[in-house]
Amino acid sequence: MNHPSEHSANRPRALSGGVPDLDxxxxxxxxxxxxSALAVNDKLSFNQLKDLLQVTDGNLSVHARKLEEGxxxxxxxxxxxxxxxxxxxxxxxxxxxxxxxxxxxxALIRAMRES
Amino acid sequence: MHxxxxxxxxPSVIPINSQAEANLRFIRQTMERAASFTAVPGWGLxxxxxxxxxxxxxxxxxxxxxxxxxxWLIEAAFAVPYGFWAMHRKARKLxxxxxxxxGRKFLLSFLPPVVxxxxxxxxxIRGRYDDLLVPCWLLLYGAGVTxxxxxxxxxxxxxxxxxxxxxxxAFFTPMGWSSVWMGLGFGVLHVVFGVLIxxxxxx
Lengths: 115, 203
Known about the structure:
The complex is a heterodimer of chains A (115) and B (203).
Chain A: H1 29-39, E1 44-45, H2 46-53, H3 57-69, E2 73-80, E3 83-90, H4 92-114
Antiparallel strand pairs in A: 1-3, 2-3
Chain B: H1 16-35, H2 42-59, H3 65-93, H4 101-126, H5 133-149, H6 155-170, H7 178-200
């Protein structure tokens, strides 16, 4: 399994150069991983996402905020058992963006096979 | 520069379709790993725990060891298939399956100690070591849950550890405590951890 970090040597190259239609917000390794993980969970806490994606606090915060600003995820901050807790949830817009992105990837593969 | 010098090879270019395939693979793998967080059915465990509590109540008043064993075999005949069905249902809800990478890892870690426990039970009953049945069941079920929990949320291995602790304690109590230990283990622990998992991991 590739390490979902921006600095991973194994990550596929960014496709943005030749594909103008791709959603720039989720066409990034960590953000794509956050959206994918939230797509199969009602909600995930900050620590669960951090454990799952093996990223640093700072890295996760930055990318989660970008997704939040884009309206792709919602963030809920509250106190539980006297500890601050942050939970993320995929919004309808985020789910649609992931589905669109999956469609783009499949279309790319089809187009390359047909050419 | 010497014109006959062999040209430096072009840097390898990744075709766009293989990049897209790698991206799709990455999404699928991330989803599979993420699904392992919640594939254990919290509410399913609660129902299994409640049925075990009922079985503990019934078994406590059985006239013989054979009747006591019969109650728990009937309970197991309902609880085990229900547990797998609940897990399958939750996995499906999360767009994954028991046969996904993590589902297979979970089952392959959980089943060996449980199968060992079943075989050991036959040997213990035939050798008339009935007093060792409950501690062995709790210990080996706990071992299975702890091992499988390494592929799931942290609550699961903690539950497995609690089962193992109860199994170890049960070795030092008289046989008359069998129904109490079964109720505390398969009943109370399942209910408590089931509620925790359901609340923290979406059902």
